[in-house]
Amino acid sequence: MSLKRFINGFLYPRIINHGNGNEINIAKTAYFRKTKFQIYGNNNKVFIDENVYMHNAHIRIGFSDCPVNNCVLKIGKNTSFNSLDMQLGEEGSIVEIGDNSMFSFHVEICCTDTHAILDNEGNLLNRGESIKIGSHVWVCKNVVITKNTEIPDNCIVAQGSIVTKKFSDKNCVIAGVPACVVKKDINWDAKRPQKFIVT
To answer: Is 99 in contact with 77 (CB distance < 8 Å)?
Structure first.
């Protein structure tokens, strides 16, 4: 086992490692509550940057009956999560999340369908390769982000949406099932709306 953990303080994630050459690199200022990492496989890498906050998060790379190798998870600085369920379940999958993003309650990020979908000749149709979420993205409550998707910088993903494709326009509201762009030329701030009301 080759696990690297750089953690300051007593609140740190529970780590279950079944494999060799796996690395979890965590900045000293990252903060965790009720968070668990499970890794099944070899040479998988996790990078958690400064001031990342995770509460009630469960991150799985591989499964006990199907270990995977060479997956990468990167989470940028100042990004926060509540009630996160994340899965990387296929060889070489990559999940990247930028800086200053905010994830609300009960968000699922799944870079796999878990089970195979085949055509009539037996060719795989649903390989999970990557998920890319930009910087300063607000993901609202009960959102599901599926495999091979992309959310650009400064976007909002509305409550209850299911993201199933790659988006290219920044500063948009993405909403619906499946999600689509419903508003352009927006931005957001973590402050309460009251702060922006001019009297």
So the answer is: yes
- From residue 30, alpha-carbon distances to 3, 11, 170 in Å are 17, 9, 27
pLDDT score of 198: 84
How high is the pLDDT of residue 92?
Answer: 97
Q: What is the CATH topology of the domain spanning 14-196?
A: UDP N-Acetylglucosamine Acyltransferase; domain 1 (2.160.10)
From CA 54, how far away is CA 31, in angstroms rounded?
6
Give Cβ neighbours of residue 9 (< 8 Å, ≥ 6 apart). 31
Question: How far is CA 111 from each of CA 59, 118, 163, 188, 191, rounded to the nearest angstrom?
Answer: 11, 17, 12, 26, 31
Q: Where do the domains of the chain lie?
A: 14-196
128-177: per-residue pLDDT in tens?
999 999 999 999 999 999 999 999 999 999 999 999 999 999 999 999 99
Q: Torsions phi, psi of 193, nearest 5? A: -55, -35
Rg, the chain, Cα only: 17
